[in-house]
Amino acid sequence: MKYRSILLFGAPGAGKGTQGKILGVIPNFFHCACGDVFRNLRPESKLGKIFVEYSGRGQLVPDEPTIELWRDFIQNTTQIGRFHPETDTLVLDGIPRNVAQAKILRNTLNVVAVFYMKSSDEKKLIARIQRRAIKENRLDDANLSIIRDRLHVYENETKPVLKFYGRKLVHNINADQPPAKVLADILRFATKR
Ligand code: ADP
Questions:
Q1: Domain ranges of the chain
Q2: Which residues of the chain have pLDDT under 50?
Q3: Which site in 51, 73, 182, 183 is 20 to 30 Å from 24, CA atoms measured?
């Protein structure tokens, strides 16, 4: 069985986490932010160390451990009854993050929509990321050169994922709007069955 999924897609700071959290409290949606799964690891664990190493440089964690961690998370949340694959739509945020991950997950995900949260203003993105760094104590958001590295990784590695899924699935969402408007735009499509 493939998981019915919608993807929240966009640059760091575009507001994927904000929207994902809201969608995740609506019955029949289950939000999974890959970055949060990583941040919940114990920093001294093997994978925790790998995460700190890569994210601290603004880079992606290698695909194999990433996918394994994600599969474990989905399995565990299913087992404890938080995620109900038969009835829930997965709201994925931060995964797949490159084309290789999209290919690995090809037989696992039934992607019904990709919400491309587009911000025209890089300065705004950077300001949001820096605000979040203080609030959430995030290493990878702490300095400007790491933020720039993360934006480059997004352009070079993550953005090609849009092409992988193709035009029919991708919905452009103006991420410069207030969060409630962004949510309204997402829901207009996400509630279609
Ligand atoms: P943002 O919300 O700013 O896009 P995330 O919280 O999603 O950031 O991710 C933070 C960091 O966690 C990434 O820079 C990366 O190092 C790691 N990470 C998260 N998801 C993935 C993934 N699917 N593949 C590889 N690395 C990931």
A1: 3-190
A2: none
A3: 51
Question: Per 3-state DSSP, what percentage of the chain is helix, strand, and coil (rounded to 5)?
Answer: 50, 15, 30
Ligand 1 pocket mutation, candidates 40, 55, 57, criterion most atoms within 8 A of CB = 55
Q: Quick: pLDDT tens for 22-72.
A: 999 999 999 999 999 999 999 999 999 999 999 999 999 999 999 999 999
Give the residue from 181, 41, 187 showing the smallest Cα distance to 115: 187
Domain made up of 3-190: CATH architecture: 3-Layer(aba) Sandwich (3.40)
b vs e for 29-54, b when ≥16 Cβ sit within 10 Å of the residue's Cβ?
bbbbbbbebbbebeeeeebeebbbeb
Q: Which residues approach ligand 1 with their CB closer than 6 A?
A: 12, 16-17, 34-35, 38, 54-55, 59-61, 66, 94-95, 97, 101, 140, 150
